[in-house]
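Protocol step 4 of 6: structure prediction from sequence.
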Amino acid sequence: MLDKIQNQLCDDCDTDFGDLSDLFVNCTLKNSPRASHTDTLMDMSREIMRKNAIAIDSIRIADHEIAYGVYPGMTEHGAKRDEWSDL
């Protein structure tokens, strides 16, 4: 997935990023397993982070019931379900 130059930059990096972690939030409108252009764009960043020993997690918002609104728990304000707090 990474080109020769990107791989070389990762290989030459001597900084220890092992204590870092990253969360990718994909806000595509497509549910899994449909292809997502957003996921394709994120794949390169994920690969660079993997090669640098950074722990990675991803959430695809379209796969969850997330209520819109301005409060942390929208079920307290009329929404039937809101998985945002759990994520």
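Step 5 (inspection) to follow. DSSP finds two helices and two strands in the chain.
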